[in-house]
Amino acid sequence: MSFEGNVQRLEEIVAALEHDELPLDRALALFDEGVACLREAAAELARVESAVEVLRENASGVLRTTEFRG
Amino acid sequence: VATLTSATRDILEGSFPYVWVHGEVVGFKEHRSGHWYFTLKDADAQLRCVSWASERRAMLVAPDDGMAVVVRGQLTVYPARGDLQFRVLALQGVGDGLWRKAFEETRARLERDGLLAPQRKRGLPLFPRCVAVVTSTDGAALHDVVAVVRRRCPGTRVVAVPATVQGETATASIRRALARVARWGEADVVIVGRGGGGREDLWAFNDEGVARAIADMPMPVISAVGHEIDVTLCDLVADARAPTPSAAAEAAVPVLSDLVRRVRNEGTALTDAIAARLALARDRAGRARAGAERAARRLLERRAMVLRGVGGRLHALSPLATMARGFAVVTDREGRAIVRAASVSAGDELRLNFRDGAVVARAERIERGAAPADGAE
User: Fold this and answer.
1) Which of B15, B25, B77, B191 is disulfide-compatible with B248, CB 3.0–4.6 A?
2) What averages of pLDDT result for each successive group of 10 residues across chain B (377 residues)?
3) Model-level pTM?
4) Nearest-CA residue of chain A relative to B138?
5) Who among B146, B158, B274 is closest to A17 (CB)?
């Protein structure tokens, strides 16, 4: 799932846990799902900085990126 | 007549190089063939002009009467009429009259096709993995975008897509670059723009083809043309508009620390919520247990009460209680109870059992008949 999807789902889960009268087993299942979303979102945030790239097309129309040396 | 007019034409064409003439357009007519006929005038004089459709590439929009223009061309004679005539090869508006007209016409076409509708605008991604930047790799625009992305959200991939943004080749170049980004497909958001420059350099971003290419992009596009005053057609078609490439980059990527905080807060909220839910469950379980215990205690008490009642009655029936009142149980040597006088013979050994012990006795004689009312003491 995308970062946005994970954060959005997480928010839904928190809202459901906070406001809905869920049966305990359902609440625990949601919590597990929330932890998974949280883990994925946090992993996305830990992306490392990369070099600027430039998109070029070769003679046969193949697109490829190379490091940009401005 | 022909000889004279031809000679005049040759002299005129030979004596005047291509010149620029400034005037106001009047009597504009477009012929079915596409040729334009109009008169250029100022306060004191008039000049008949013609623009052949075949010679007119760069002038897409017809001027209206009253517009101030500058035309470039050649002074000649039209022999069939013997008129002085100016052959127009290029035409530019003075001020923004002509430019504005071209802009409005294109805008109306885009609007008619629904490309300017607000509901067409896509939201920008919260946290894009990859930002494509369609711009010149020489200008400051790319540098500015990279600087802002590095500062706000260093993990974002920035991919430059080189395009010429000024001059004759700009429109084709920008369209080609956009097509590449679309075909490549890895960008989550595209910034199209240039670093700055005068209004005359904006025209590529007012090109209908470029505007339509932006509208066709499969991912959101931020237009960053770098002109505060003029809105370009690209600005109108794009999903978001930024005054500068730096501002476009700020719109494209979030501040990482804000997102980190937000995710962390969600995490805290999640654990708090489940903790509250568990506390509630524990509370309920505790209450249920207390209830069960109370019920069990009540049950036990009731049983105990019943037992006490039964015990009382049993006690009343017990021979021990009778013995306590002064009776003794008579048994034979083997401990069998003797309840009738007839089962005893004189000389038999009898045991008289009291509460605190037994007395061994021997039967002297047997008397038949009812026992005395007050027992055998």
Assistant:
1) B191
2) 90 88 91 91 92 75 83 90 90 75 87 92 92 90 93 92 87 95 95 76 85 96 80 92 92 93 93 90 91 92 88 73 78 86 88 87 83 51
3) 0.65
4) A70
5) B274
